[in-house]
Amino acid sequence: MLSSKIIKIEYFRVPPRWLFVRVETADGTVGWGESTLEGHTEAVEGAMKDLQERFTGANADDIQDIWQTAYMMRFYRGGPSALSGLDIALWDIKGKRLGVPVWQLLGGKVRDRVKVYGWIGGDHPSEVLNAALERKQQGFTAVKMNGTDAVSWIDSPDVLKGTVERVRQVREEAKMDVGVDFHGRVHKGMAKQLAKLLEPYQPLFIEEPLLPSHPDEIADISKLVSTPIALGERLHSRYEFRPYFEKRAIDIAQPDVSHCGGITELRNIASLAETYDVALAPHCPLGPIALAACFQVALSAPNFVIQEMSWKMHYNTDDPEAADLHTYMANPHVFDIREGHIDALQGPGIGIEIAEELVRTASEMYTSSRSAWRNPVWRGPDGSLREW
Fold first, then answer.
1. Which GO terms describe its molecular function (predicted)?
2. Is residue 227 pLDDT above 80, yes or no?
């Protein structure tokens, strides 16, 4: 039997809201991937069943052929999160079988450590200064916060004042860099005002100033302010990023390795972004496998600037099980933060070790006792829907 033949593909739904993928080859090598797509867990699991049937028995070394087959085999395409988990696991296997980190297979590293940022503020940002100072003690030099609570299409300018004050506190009192995530919650009329009001405080970036369905309008905002514009978690391939690059709409591409097609497509997007002088800052408020996969590209992509990580993020700490970034890791020290950076991962594959028995136990508990996570539904004072 071919030693690299895939003999098993499994997936595990685990707290707080992650979906891990395990792939095993005939020689006993195990690779881990992550297919987390918040709020759509069952849909991804359904797509994973298709991949199980199609690729059990395939050669795990043929990463590119498996990726192309999975992406192109459906007339209507789709399923990039399921593909992402499989792709990450295959790269993990290849690195482990060759005894090298994945970044070596991508051409070697161009940096020795990766700059990271943490989250403050939660979904309903209020008091952020103490949270920023706590992050600073943890080793971060940069943070990200949601810009606003729910906002109407056109709202009172007073709703923007709190955002400006919070950014001022983080910049001037905590003396940290801060990215501001509009989260697609703010419509054009208000987004223009908020972007201009924040400009004097030099945010690290403004993320998703509008929903990604508006590339021309986002390009207009990009021309309005000097603050870098970032976007990409809801774009799922290099093809979807292309119009943003061509319209000069964004300065920072934020693809999500668990949404866009794994390490293979993340590297493709990074290379395409570089040709347009656009920086790379992968989106990753997810689990440790996704983060480790991002690191492989971050270490090898010349245009990488900073990496999001979910350690102690509200998504994790607010969960009933309080599962966090390190919970399922056997070697959590590899994510230690020093001076705002994490050292290059040196282990084979994606560079982390997963506590498999804990994953299996947690998944069994989760699937038997809880429903998959759903994002909240927000409404304004008049009862109309607001963007979450």
1. galactonate dehydratase activity; metal ion binding
2. yes
